[in-house]
Amino acid sequence: MNIIAFNGSPRAEQSTTHIMVSAFLAGAEEAGAKTEQIYLAHKKIGHCLGCFSCWLKTPGKCIQSDDMADLIQKYLSSDVAIFASPLYMDNVSGIMKNFMDRLLPVGDPHFEKDNHGDVRHIKGKANNPKFIMISNCGFPEQSNFQVLKLLAKRLARNYQTEFTAEIYLGAGGMLQVEEMKPLADEYTKLLKTAGAEVVRTGTLSSETSSMLDKPLIKDPGFVDTFIANMNEYMDSMIAANKPI
């Protein structure tokens, strides 16, 4: 199995997204998969021009000359593609959105009805890989991923492929806090288990999925503590960055 993760964090290797993806891929590798993590922040990806040239003039090929041609080949060569992104404004990052939009050439411009009678584009000649969504956000509640959860299901429907797993982490920045290392280690170990499960069974067990959906800190008073601590931290950073 070939698993390729497309990391859409602007912080690339320094990101919480990187920590999550790396742990997942480590588990997948131990289970026998070939893996790769691609940092979209290091790639030149223009936004979609909406010109339809990749469908009408140069089928299967965008008229823009950037890194997307190679990225599309990487995407199509994978058995499982991971869309990994921090949560920005209730959605994926701008880098990831550009990447998703620029996957348009793999599709077909003609229309059909799906099993529910809704109109969508016909599947392209190439098979889309199964895919996984991985995300984290600064806010502590899992409810912040409502939009992204719906987007993931719509992507699977539009790409006519299988949505294998979704992993979301509120207050993800805690994975990089030294005082939280024991909790972070416990969580990344769980991510490794998830990666191995996907390779061995094709999906996540309900138990692993449930455990991944729980907050890192389960104390009912954590949210109030989070607000107080983060406001204090923000005030200190604002003060530190004021011009002298």
TrEMBL record:
It comes from the Archaea. Residues 1-103 form the NADPH-dependent FMN reductase-like domain. Keywords: Flavoprotein, FMN. GO terms for molecular function: oxidoreductase activity. It holds the Pfam family FMN_red. Its cofactor is FMN; [4Fe-4S] cluster. Gene3D superfamilies: 3.40.50.360. Belongs to the SsuE family. Isf subfamily. This is Flavodoxin family protein. It comes from Methanospirillum purgamenti.
